[in-house]
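Hi C.,

You asked whether I'd gotten around to modeling the 236-residue construct. I have! Everything is below, sequence then structure, no commentary in between.
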Amino acid sequence: MKSRRIIAALLLLFAAAAAIIAAATAGRVEAADSVAAARAELPVLVIDAGHGGLDGGASSADGMTENEVNLAIALRLEALASLCGAETVMTRTALDLNYPDESASIAEKKVWDQNYRLLLINSIKNAVLISIHQNAYPDPRPSGTLVLYGAAEGSSGFGEALHSQLVESFNPENRRVAAPAPDSVYLMRSVTCPAVLAECGFLSNPQEAEKLADNGYRLKLAMAMASVFLRYWSAA
């Protein structure tokens, strides 16, 4: 089943790439119109690589930070979604953040960053947010994906679809279900667009941390997210 999902996602990407190549050769006007039409039907995909800058998030036993893993997956998701014709916006594109001079303490910098992301997301018309995170727990045994969804209308259905795909593709033994994000998750509580938060795995689990360090695994996670976004919102 996992192989079929990956193959289907690859075929989707190859089809999009073929359309782009065709647009550069004979008949490129028709192909470009086709890509533009598909783009117009989709909402804007806002990709939030959680944490960043002075906020490294969780970390693995060998020091790999959530900041790094989130960004690596987010950049791959942005590339895949753009290739397939979706308009994308990233809340950050680097490990470091450009904090304003007036933010003196670490706490002030974190508040500024969260408010900056919120203002950016809420300024985009017809947006859908995917916020990428990693989990951690004192006990190294827990593993697996989990999707939390925001308070805005349209979040729960998308969150359930994304959670089902991630579980089916990466850990079918996982018995967790998609759930509303707690009020403590600022962006999920405050954004006005459909929003989901994808916990891709546990950095505290050595076996899962090893997978999350692998660029091929990161690409597969991004492919799963891109395929669900394209399928779910094209049908909406």
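If it helps when you're writing up: The chain has eight helices and six strands.

Thanks,
B.
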